[in-house]
Each structure stands twice: as structure tokens, then as C-alpha cells.
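To the team - nicotinamide-adenine-dinucleotide complex, inputs and output below.
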Amino acid sequence: MTQHLIQTRRILLTGGAGFIGSHTYVALVRAGYSVAILDNFANARRDVPDRLAQIVNAPTTVYDCDIRSEKDVSQVFDSERFDAVVHFAALKSVPEGQADPLGYYETNCGGLFNIASAMKATGVEKMVFSSSAAIYGEPAEMPIREDSRPSPQSVYAQTKLVGEEFLTSLSAADQDLQVGILRYFNPVGAHPSGLIGEDPSQPPTNLVPVIARVALGLIPSLTVYGGDYPTADGTGVRDYIHVQDLAHGHVLSLDALFAGRGNHCVNLGTGTGYSVLDVVKAYERASGQHIPYEITNRRPGDPAVSCAATDLARKLLGFEAQLGLDDMCAGNWQFIKEA
Ligand SMILES: NC(=O)c1ccc[n+]([C@@H]2O[C@H](COP(=O)([O-])OP(=O)(O)OC[C@H]3O[C@@H](n4cnc5c(N)ncnc54)[C@H](O)[C@@H]3O)[C@@H](O)[C@H]2O)c1
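Output:
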């Protein structure tokens, strides 16, 4: 009888205790990868690793490390051998980035530099990088294709574009390095266990976590920025994607890198747009709560519509989102009301 020795690939998930990172942890473990988390818990609860252990029924390896420290990052990479990195760790609030641009560059660009340097020093040749639809700004065409001209409208979005360009330049110069750049649209939802979800320790700025706070009675009403856009109900339209679908996208991206299919840069969205009021109604259905809202002025830099072209992710990764807005709101509510 022939015995096949299957080498489990070891993946370092920076920011793995965060919202998208924790769901990706579960998806990667279920797909057969062995995963370690690096996080400084700046925006994650300390008990997330225990919750992950409960979900996958196996202990979690966690490096409590700040990516801004070159020394601490090197120590993590010296302590074991990784086959790839999925790099989530970043700061992600648009208003916070405007108030502290240097801090945002330090974490999102300096931290990325430290990770890439440690990868080079230890021979790690594959990275999946969290980018954002925010890099497109106010797009000239809809749906937004990956070759649309980037036009970041905030420090946060600019740090993501700098990160993309840095990695693209590195991988062009160093043929051994392969990079998957994933531009997320608007992730919502939670794992069906209800154990992990979007649980920001800072006041939320994303739509659904704010709606959730209204549903819980923590905020009296939702502020809707702009009711006079050229959309069906006048409010801004966005492409929301279930975090479980997004997590699966990372498995496909890593699989593609390990299969030697080369660098890729793709949108991860559903291609379907929902207005702010569509999301409010869906959340009311999911929670059974009334969500009062008031419409105020548009925010500068917010496009009327932002939806992903999804054909490239389908072609290069075989990615197709499966879950819809009702699943996203139901998942968020289940998690939030038990958190
Ligand atoms: N959630 C979104 O709407 C969205 C959209 C597009 C792109 N992204 C990107 O996806 C990634 C993950 O986002 P998320 O929503 O899960 O955010 P999150 O804040 O939940 O996760 C980020 C994680 O990084 C950790 N972290 C922050 N600074 C760190 C540091 N200096 N050292 C080590 N760890 C650090 C945080 O503690 C957190 O666990 C980010 O890179 C973000 O920019 C998010």
C-alpha cells in the first residue's frame, strides 16, 4: 500500500482575531490549512482565540505582537516556519485616519513593510493582502472593474493603495514572491455559531454595526448621509458581502497561489447593490426591531453607487458569493444580541 505524506501548510494570519480574520481562520482550518494568529488586540476581544478553538475544536496558536515593531515581527517569523501570510492587521476607520494620518501610515504601511521584510528574511513567498473597494473612490464606471483608475478619497484608502503598489512592485522585482490582492466591498454578517462576528472596540463607522446599535437601543436613530442621490430611494447603494463568503475567498486565493497560478488582484463582492434603506428594512426583518433614521447631508467623497464587477474573481479564483442581505443581517443580529 502506498502511503502519501500530506504536508499541512502553515499560514500566519495577521489580524486573525479581528472581524474578517477570525472568519477566515475558521474557513482555512476547515479547508485543511494549519493556521497561527498574530494580533495585538487593538480592535479585537481577547477571548476570540478561545471562541475559535471552540468552533474548530482544536487549540489556537496566538502571537500577541504589534506589527509596528520590526523586532517583535522578526521574532514571530523566527519561531516557526510559515508557508504563507494572510495580512489583515490594519487600522480601518476613515475618520480616525483623517485625524491621525501618521498613525495610519505607521500601522498600515510600516507594519506591512515589517511583515514583508520578515517574510523575505525567512523565505516565505506567498501573501494574501486585504485591500478595499475604498481605493476606487468615486468611480467613473459601474460596476467597478479591477482596472478602474484608483482614486482614494481618504488617508485610510490611500494606505491600502500604497500597500497594493508596494506589494505589486516587490513581486515584480522578486519573481519568488506571489501576492493575492483582494479588494473587499462591504463585509457584513457573522459565523452561524454566533461566537464570532463584527465587534468593534471603537465606536463603529460601518453601516450595519451602527444599525445594530440602534436596534439594541444604544443609539436613538441612524444618521443616513444623503437622501438625494440618483438612486431608486435617494440613499447610497453599496455592494454588501457576507463575511463567510469573503472568508472563503481567502481560501481560494491561497489555493491559487499554492497551485502556482501566480499573482492576482480581484474584487470580492456580490455584484448586487443595496441602498441604505434596503439595509435598514432587512435589519428590521432580521431583528424584529424598528430602526428610526434621519436623513442628513451627503458626506464628501461618498459615491452614489459602489458595486463590484465580479467576473475576474470568478475567472481567476472560481469565487462566487452564495449568501444574501437577509443572511448578513440575521447573522449580525444573532451575534450582536448575544455578545
Ligand atoms: N471591514 C471592512 O469593511 C473592510 C473593508 C475593506 C477592507 N478591509 C480590510 O480588511 C482587514 C481586516 O478588517 P476587519 O474588518 O477584520 O478589521 P478588524 O479591526 O476587525 O481587524 C483588524 C485586526 O488587526 C489587528 N491590529 C490592528 N493593528 C495592529 C497592529 N499594529 N499589530 C497587530 N495587529 C493589529 C486588530 O486588533 C484586529 O484584530 C483590514 O486590513 C481592513 O483594512 C476591511
